[in-house]
Amino acid sequence: MIEVKSPATTYYEAQVQATEATVATINNLLDVQKQIMKRGVKYDGIDMLPFPFITVVGHEWSLHWIYHRDSRDGGRPKMDVIGPCSLGGTQDRTNAFKPMNSIQKLKTWMGSEYSGWVKRWYGWRDGSFGVNEVQDV
C-alpha cells in the first residue's frame, strides 16, 4: 500500500488514509481466514505479521508497519502502527535512488519470507488448497 500526497497536504493526512486502507485489508484477511477454517483447514496459531505501507508527501518517502493483535481483555482486537521510518526523498537525482533501493529490498523480503508466512497462515500446504478454492471463499 502506498499513499501519495502533494506537498500541500499534511503527513498526518497521508498516514491516516494509508492506515485506514491497511486496516481494511487486514480485516478482510482475517475474514478469509475464518472462512478457510470453517472448511476444516487446521489453523496452527501463526500470528499475523505486520503489514508494511508507505506514505509519500511531496518528496519525502516513509515506511510504516501496522499489525493486528488480539485484545488481552477479550475486547476488540487492536491495530498498532509503527513508524514512520524515512526511506529518503526524491528532491534530487542522487537521493531518488534511496527510496527505490528500500522498496526493492522490501519487495524481495515480501516475495520470500513474507509470502511463505502468508501461505502457512492460510493453511496452504503441499497443494492442500488450490487457488480456485480460495477465490470461492
What does this structure look like?
- This protein is α+β, with helices and mostly antiparallel strands.
- It has one domain.
- Helices cover 47% and strands 24% of the residues.
- The chain has helices at residues 11-38, 93-122, 131-136, and strands spanning 2-5, 51-57, 60-69, 78-89.
- The protein has a four-stranded mixed beta sheet with strand order 1-2-3-4.
- The chain starts with a strand and ends with a helix.
- 12% of the residues are buried.
- Residues 127-137 have low confidence and may be disordered.
- Residues 2-114 form the PD-(D/E)XK nuclease-like domain.
- This is PD-(D/E)XK nuclease-like domain-containing protein.
- It comes from Arthrobotrys flagrans.
- It holds the Pfam family PDDEXK_12.
